[in-house]
Amino acid sequence: MPLISTGVITHGARTDATGVGAFNVVQIEHAQAIASGAEAAGLPVILQVSENTARYHGGLEPIGLASLAVARAAGVPVSVHLDHAESADLVREAVRIGFTSVMFDASALPYADNVAATREITAYCHSHGVWVEAELGEIGGKDGAHAPGVRTDPDEARAFVEATAVDALAVAVGSSHAMLTRDAVLDFALISRLRDTVGVPLVLHGSSGVGDTGLAAAIGAGMTKVNISTHLNKLFTRAVRDYLDTHAEAADPRAYLGPARDAVAAEVARLLGVLARPGR
Question: Which pTM value belongs to this model?
Fold first, then answer.
C-alpha cells in the first residue's frame, strides 16, 4: 500500500475512526513547533509547505529542506507534504528534494482538464514513489477564487479518483480556507457518502474554521487527513504580540518567536489528540 512518508497515512479503506493532522509551515519555527507537538502527543503528523509559502521564501528549497531536516530529527513519524501546488514544475522539485507526498490542485480548470493534468502528475509521482492528493469540488473562500457553499458530488468524486489514480481526495463539505472563527458547519452525511463511494482517504481543507466537536465528528464520519493553518497562525501571532506588548525594548527575534513556537506546539499536541481519539 502506498504511504505518506513514514506511514502517516495508508492508502485504502479505514479500519477505525482515526485522523491525522496536517499543519502548514510558514517558517522554520512552525516546523519545529509542529514536530515538537507531535512528539509531546506521541502521534504522527504531516508538515505542509504550500506553493504560496515557497514563493514567500524565494523558492521551495529553503523552507522545504529545513522542514525535511526537522522531520528526520523527530521522535515520531513526520512527513513533509507539498500543499496546494498548481505548478507541475514545483511538484517535480518537491519530489527531487525528498518530499514524499504532494497535493496537486488543478481544480480551477474545467473537469476534463483537471483530470488530464492530475493524471499526468500522478503518473510522474507514482513512478518516484510519491503519494498524490488532488482536489475536486472547490473549497470555499481561498483568495476569493472559490465560491462558498460548493459541495463535492460523490459519483463525480469516484469517477475522478478512478480516472486519475490519486491516493487521496480533498473534498468540499462546508469548510472554507483562512477562516478566523471556528464555526463552520460541516455536512457529515455527505462526508459519510463520500467515504463509502470514493475508496481513498478524504482530506478536509479549511479546518481552521471547524471546532473540536466538528473535527471529531468529521473523523467519525469518514475524514482521514485534516489540514490546519490559519488557526495556528493566529496563536503564533498572538503570542508574538503579547510578548512585544510587555517587552517594548525587545530586539532579539528569538525572545518573541520562542514563546510563539511553544504556543503552537502545545496546540498541535492538543489537536492531534482530538483527531486521533475522537469521542474519547
Answer: 0.89
